[in-house]
Amino acid sequence: MSAGLSSTWVYLSTSPLLWLTVTLLAYAAADWISIKAHRNPLASPVVIAVALVILLLEATGTDYETYFKGAQFVNFLLGPATVALGVPLWRNLRTVRSVLVPLGCALVAGGITAMVSAVGIAWLFGSPPEILATVAPKSVTTPIAMAIAETLGGIPSLAAILVLVTGIFGSIIVTPLMNLLRVSDPAARGFAAGLAAHGFGTARAFQVNEIAGTFAGIGMGLNGAFTAIVLSLLSAFFG
Amino acid sequence: MLQAITVLFLCQLAGEALVRFLRLPFPGPVLGMLLLAAILTVRGRAGPELETTTSVILRNLVLLYIPVSVGIIRQGANLSRYGLALGTAILVSTVLTLAVTALVFQFVARRRNPIPDPQISDPQISDRGAARSRGPNREATP
Q: Which residue among A65, A96, A108, B85 has the highest number of C-beta atoms inside a 10 angstrom radius?
């Protein structure tokens, strides 16, 4: 019996099916917890799901390579899912033709501020190039940020965490900060939230009002494309 | 469903092939995203299949971050070494980015259209008016 159990475990623990299933179950559990917490940004489903998987890996003494052999099937879909972001990008672009000038100015100013300030501060602390390449896309939505980090020689998994922290922090401070700065235009507030804090900022903006939410979605989409283009140009010239 | 997925894979494939062919330091899937947006702009419509499939994928986008994010277990050395630098960079940069973006947007918009908008004249944008949970996972998509 116990020999049967242990040989079953030996089979399962190295089988891609087990870790693929674990990933899906961890996501389902994390999503359920997040709903129970009323989608509070601090109860982020990614954080909960990743923590659950890590706990299980530690408890069973499984290494990351073994886990990834199963999880790679989910990971593979990240590429097509990034392409899918083109649909909301196209839909949002159609709705904003009237405010194209303020939008373009804010995109260039904000997008460059996000990259330059993050990289500049990390550089002042003496961080090496691979860390700078990892923090550069921190304001951009996770799939794009991971892809940028990888292209520039950064660390995709660390980039994912930095993006997450940016999103949580940004979505918490955006409303008090905008009130402090006396920015009252919901389009400006929303656009800033999406540009600086991607999906978390967008979700926050939708809680405040519909206009802010729509502009946040636009800010998120445009800054993803803008950051990827600027960073790849920079790395082509200096890389 | 299958047709829409094929479109997404084709766009990604074109993006990956293009960046390699042109030797661009640019992520293939992001170029695929721009290609899809460009195709839709030319066509003028997405169609129900692509709309439904992409919305299902995007609502569950968080699932797709898990495998790479679990890789953080191997980043202990980097986190303890550069944690302070990265933490400071994120906090300061996020405040600066929010402020610069919103101020530039509002400044340019007001210069171009000085007539006060009814929305602009109301500084107290309600935080509580909108429903907190707006469908599955909107909040959870960084």
A: B85
Chain A residue numbers touching B52 (CB-CB < 8 A): none
Cβ count near B63 (within 10 Å): 25
Q: Tell me which residues of chain A have a pLDDT lower than 50.
A: none
The answer to whether the pTM exceeds 0.90 is no
B-chain residues within 8 Å CB-CB of A29? none
What pLDDT digit, counting tens, does each position of B61-82 carry? 889 989 999 999 999 999 999 9
Q: In this complex, do A68 and B122 lie within 8 Å of one another by their Cβ atoms?
A: no
Q: Please report the sign of the dihedral spanned by the C-alpha atoms of residue B71, residue B72, residue B74, residue B75.
A: positive
Closest CA to A48 of B111, B133, B62, B59: B62
Query: Between B9, B112, B121, which is nearest A80 by CB?
Result: B9
CA distances from B76 to A49, A130, B134 (A): 19, 15, 36
Locate the domains of chain A by residue range: 2-75, 84-238
On the question of pLDDT at B90 being above 70, the answer is yes
What ipTM was predicted for this assembly? Answer: 0.88
Q: Choose the mutation target among B7, B19, B60, B98 for the interface with A, i.e. most A CBs under 10 Å.
A: B98
Block residue for tokens 């990892």: A134
8-state DSSP, A216 = H
Element (H, E) at A136: none
Q: Do B63 and A27 touch (CB under 8 A)?
A: yes
Question: Looking at the complex, does the CB of residue A144 fall below 8 Å from at least one CB of chain B?
Answer: yes
Instruction: Give residue A42's identity as a one-letter amino acid code.
Output: L
Tens digits of residue pLDDT in B31-48: 999 999 999 999 999 999
CB proximity A64 to B under 8 Å: yes
